[in-house]
Amino acid sequence: MSSLLLRLSSKTSLRKLSLRCRHSTLRMFSSSSTTTNPYLMYSLIHYGSCLDDIDVTSTIHYFDPVKEDEIIVRDKAFPMELRNTSLVGMSHGWGVFNVETGDGRHKAVYVSDYCNPCGSKSNPKIIPLHPMYPMGKPNITQLRLITNAAMTCSPDQSKDFVVAANCLGLEIHFFRPCGKTDNYSGLGFKTESHFFDQSKVMYSKRDKKFYTPSVGGHLLGFWDSCFEDLTASKIHELRFCNLPEVTQSEWELLDSCSPPTVHLVESPSGQRFLVKWYAQNYKPGERMTFLCRGTKHFMVFREEEDMNMCYTEDIGDLCIFLGRSEPFCVKASSFPGLNPNSIYFAGDGFGVYDIATRKPRSFRPKSPSAFSTTPLFPYWIPPMPL
């Protein structure tokens, strides 16, 4: 069976797009009349004799969790500016790319809609950010890796956006392309505790702050996106309540997992949840597939008054999307086919977790050819306007 092919030529034609599969035409690009479905970008393949050629193109593989099927965007131009970069994060459908020098050190950061299925196929948008030298001075972060990133908004919404780049170690850097002064081009802060090593950063639209939970989730660091206070991050100690009863077999399962990764996510209404993701590590040389694999369990805590975190098994009509991109929530009722009260995960396995029953399941793609390539990029893309 031939692969599904999604042809993207312009925003105007997106409303008329169809997915073509052999002899039938399925008008199933979106469950909403105004946005795309959420997508998972999991594979990217380049075509050309060498990366120095002008006419290098890409084929990008996406997964639509609403239809549980594959979407392929072919013949997408691979910009020269991104040839020697690494995709290190994604937020609002925009990829964050790290530019490296010959000795492997950080040199600069770009944001681009190159990975966005709604972006231009022939001329993706690329916005260069300033080198990682906060306030004109070299910093130890240039020796470290960016692990994840978050943005205040899409550059399509505002040119005065802020990018937060979380780095391996104890540092987080912020970039504002349209800052008021040169000092705002690259602000660097060092967290005060080793508990924030390899933590995940997110942006709260409700509070206009960046947050990053500590390893284990007991502390929460945050920064004002206006950067009026240029001191180190503020840290809040979280209190947990209504903890679940855990059986002996569940304790044994959790004990077999690595320390959980902790994610803070905000719903469209501003309600926040702290999610602990428990997974077992892959064995060396083990091939990643679209199965649950290492993921065993999630714990979800709803933020109550004074940042108290209350365990819950009911987030209502919401779905949470977790991967290497900035986490986000959508209403399941807005995208018929999504399972409410669920977590869609990509990274330590690929699937959907029912919060009420505490059970994960693997995705069930309809196309036999789907996921024939090894998943490489577990990046979720939120619904994008048509």
From TrEMBL:
InterPro entries: F-box_BR-signaling, KIB1-4_b-propeller. Residues 77-354 form the KIB1-4 beta-propeller domain. It holds the Pfam family Beta-prop_KIB1-4. This is KIB1-4 beta-propeller domain-containing protein.
